[in-house]
Amino acid sequence: MPGTPAVHEPITTSVSSDDPALAGAPRERRRGERRRQVLRALLLGNFHARRRRPRRADERGLAALDWHHPQWLATAILIVLLSSVDSLLTLALVEHGAYETNPLMRPLVEGASALPFTLVKVGLTGGGVVLLTLLARMRLFGQLTAGLLIYAVLAAYGILILYELGLLDRLSG
């Protein structure tokens, strides 16, 4: 419509200089369109996080937070490392005569190269861990938080690694 400002144009307000509380107040607080400075937002947002908790009680979206506790990073790194160890142990077990029981991963394990299997396995695990980290404070299934699910995945990978080490010991010895 003619005469209406575009969405990206700053809105200016007039400030009355008669009010002593508003004297000297700037007419415009924004310095341009902040949504166009993606790289700056990513760099500064990592070091100066503003949303450590949702602002409203009913806010449950993924964008409600821009800072997550360091424990989730440590747990996520451990899960991805254990996933990498699991893929190496799986390949070692296959070389000793075992077979992959996961029907989706079996064609990748039996392929000519181990690289596709490792990339898919670690990639899928990493994607799942990122999603669970984003959902860490949300309630799943009523009372269970996604953060507890992250710890359960970590524990399951630990048990799996111990199981695979036992299998490898039996097959090689």
Describe this structure in words.
This protein is mainly α and about 170 residues long. The chain has five helices and two strands; from the N terminus they run ααααββα. A two-stranded antiparallel ribbon has the order 1-2. Helix 2 (about 70-95) packs antiparallel against helix 4 (about 115-135) and helix 2 (about 70-95) packs parallel to helix 5 (about 145-170). The longest helix has 27 residues, at about 145-170. About 10% of the residues are buried. The model has no long low-confidence stretch (mean pLDDT about 75).
Helix run count: 5
The spatial strand order of the largest sheet comes to 1-2
Count of distinct strands: 2
> What is the string of SSEs from the N terminus onward?
HHHHEEH
**Into which percentage range does the β-strand content fall?**
under 5%
Helix-residue proportion: 40-55%
Major sheet summary line: 2 strands, antiparallel
Structural class: mainly alpha
Average per-residue pLDDT, rounded, comes to 75
